[in-house]
Amino acid sequence: MAAVALHARHSLKLKDAITTRYQPDGSIFNLRRLKSVTKPSSEHIFVLQYADDTALVSHSSAVLQRLLDQLSDVYSHAGLVINTKKTESLQQPCAPDTNPCSFHVEDATIANVNQFIYLCSVLNNTLDLTDDIQRIRLASDAFGPLSIQVLLNKNINIRTRVAVYDAVCVSIRLYDCESWVPYRRHIRML
C-alpha cells in the first residue's frame, strides 16, 4: 500500500499538498533557535496510512478528487480495488454553511459522513472533542473493579500499584489526546 501511495505521490503537484514545517533538532521552542543555523524542514502530505487504512488530505475538493482518481488508477495497475462500500468522506469545512462535496471512485459515489472512528478516536466535522471525552469517561468507569482488586489492595506493594495505574489507567485515558485542540469546556469535562 505504501509503495502504491508513493508512486501516486510523484504525479501530484506540491502546491496541492498540506505542508507541515518542523525543526528536527528539538530547538523549535527554544529562543536560541533565532541564532541557529539550522532551518526548519517541511514535508508535503497527500496520504496518511495506517495498516490497511488510507486517508487522503487536501485543502481543496478538486485536488482531493484528482488525488482519489490518481490513487484509484495506481491501485488498479497494482491489481487492487478501492472498496467504495467501506470508503467514507469526512469534510471539516472552514465555514459552517459550506455544502459538502461529493466524491466518486469510477462510477460509485462515496458516502459523506459527519463522524467516524479512526484509531480509537472519534473524528467529526465540527472538531468537537465531546465524544472522545465520553470514551475516556467510560474507560475510567471500567476501572472501578481494578481499583478494588489492585489499587486499594493493601497486600500489594505500592510500587506495583503505581506501575499498574501508569500502565493501564494513564495510558488509556491519555491515548490519542496529543492531537486534540481542547477548549475550556473540554478541560472542565476531563
From TrEMBL:
Residues 37-92 form the Reverse transcriptase domain. InterPro entries: Rev_trsase/Diguanyl_cyclase, RT_dom. It holds the Pfam family RVT_1. This is Reverse transcriptase domain-containing protein.
